[in-house]
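note to self: dont lose this again. the chain is below, predicted strucutre after it. 767 aa total, dont forget to put it in the shared folder this time
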Amino acid sequence: MKNNNFYVIVGKLLVFLLLSALTAGVIITYPFCLKKSKVLQEEMKSQNEALYKAEEEDNKEELIKRLYMGVYSLYKDIVIQNKEDEYITSSELYLPKLQKDISNIENEENYEEYSANEPYNKKVNFIQSFDIMLDDWSREFYGPTLDMYGLEYYIRDDKTSNFLTNSIADLSMLTEETGTGGLSENYAFYTVLKYDEAGKLSIPVFYGLEENKKEQLKGLEATKTVIREYFDAKYYQYSQYFNGLKGPENQTIIFAAKGSEFYNVYTTYNNTWQSDSYAFHQVGFIYVFIAALAIITLLGLLLPFIKPFQIGQGLAAKLLIELCIVGIGAVLGLYESLVIMGTETAQETFLIFDKTIISSFGAKIINYSLNYVIWLGVFFLWFIAILSIRSVFTKGLKRYIKENTILGICYVICKKTILSIRKIDLREASNKHILKIVAINFIVLVLFCTMWVAGIVALIPYSIVLFFILRKYYQDLRQKHQILLEATGKMGKGNLEVGIPEELGVFEPLKEELTKLQIGFKKAVEEEMKSQRMKTDLITNVSHDLKTPLTAIITYINLLKDNNLTEEERNSYIETLDKKSMRLKYLIEDLFEMSKATSKTVTMNLVEVDITALIKQVQLELADKVEASEIEFRTSFPEEKVILLLDSEKTYRIIENLYINILKYAMTHTRAYVEVKDLGEVVTVILKNVSATEMDFNTEEISERFVRGDKSRNTEGSGLGLAIVKSFVELQGGRFTLQVDGDLFKVILEFMKRPNNQTNDIGADES
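---
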């Protein structure tokens, strides 16, 4: 496995080094391509200039032609202005004789005979065509011509002095200027055209173009060439009607333009060879690009044959063919941008930095490094695409189409879907339920689609999709339900540490409850283990406490069998037997009493008891022992009686056991405190003393059965004293609390003045 990983890493490193070397090779060609592009630009410059001049001449001729067309458009508009907006057609203005002949014919009585005459119809058609031509001229002049050339015009009727212009400047001043100053300095071209009463054209001012263009404009007016060419091309049979064609009369027309080469609106050769990137491409960089892609293609096809390298077996083998095509298209589409980048990098204009911050050499390093990264990314994209396409040979065409094309993947999904449908068990209740929902949904949607057939057809795939969505949701519920079942099964087998880390959705509340149940089970198990341990301790302690006096009794009985005993010895032994038997009796009675209290089979006789008086009675009866213990008891009782509903006998036993516990374990020559507090609804009895020994026991366990403060069990007692106290207090609806603070031992009894359970029968009778 380690060797395989090593070869895979070597393969990836090899691909990186090869693509890096190829990238470096491409970048190295930058200076050579730039040098050759400069030479090529110089060679083509002269050729371009010749083409440019030829085209420039054509553009100037086109300008003169458009100026001529503009003259006729402007003249018509100013004539209409002079007639105070009375409309006049172009034929009425420029072909008055022909228009008059037609009008005379139309006024004749035998007009219908003339109207059927072919010459008449030709005249009418000619006039209509002439009007259309002049309308086209007008639209062309006021639209594209003025916009493209940036022309300004001024036309003045010399008789009426009316004028039209589109310029904010007073172009009439150009009639007297000769280009030596004033307004004329603002224009690269301007000309003044004057038409006399006979319609003869003179051009007193013509500045900015060659003199032959001036003569060309005069020739167009004299021969009406532009108009004739229009009709000769379309209506050659109408040439006979040009004899009566008139031109403008008594007009001064001025044209001006500010741009130095305003006439070159149709030039196509002026920028082609000025592009450095185009020259960079033309000198052979395209071949460098193609060669690099060809080499990468060969690497992509051949490197996978080195099996240990596992080239092309990862992500590349899974790419969709559509993505590969997009990647290849992106690489080819980036070529123009890459050429521009290469040109600017070679010219040191790609990224320009402030030389005070980054030196020229540093800027060059940054530029070429950025080029390296971009080219490497482009080549890597091409390489991945080739690897993916190559997998068609390893997978086979059929498998490749299924796994690496959108159409194939859709086919596989549809096939699996159909197979899944066929495997559906309709006898399963969940599937039946889902099918009912889908059927109802289908019916509802059909009702909405009854007015449109296409909508009904679309319901079929919609219903299939809806079914699988619902089925997936239901399976998800079943899966989460199964997780719960498995968890509860493990818990049932005793594994209380099992967890449910998964998100259960709608079952999340049940998961929380199950977690609480798990905690409860663990607590119950812990309590049970504690109980088992306590039982073991109980047996051990009971055995010890019963065995000790019983052993003594047996021993002394055996001693009494000796006939040689003196009367004094015999009496001593009998006294000892009496003490041991009484201790055994008390131990058995305590054990029996504790057993009844634990099983709640003891009968409680609740009566009204003055708790203060009861405590005083206990203290009085134990006065001898109190005096012998050398412990001073301090009491604090309320002045008034404190009456509680308690079992007097059991309560007496409670107080007695607590007093005996103090006398047994309290430090001599210290004070013990007994206090009764009436807190309204609750009465507390507090007993405090200082322990004679260190209290290293668990306060929760000290009140259990057969547990003593002295673990060595050297003192007399059954170990049931506090256990009996706790049981009797709780049986009477009270609460027993034990607190230890250093050597201070404190017992708190709490009784309700009106306990919830006031019945005398707390449990069953002993009988």
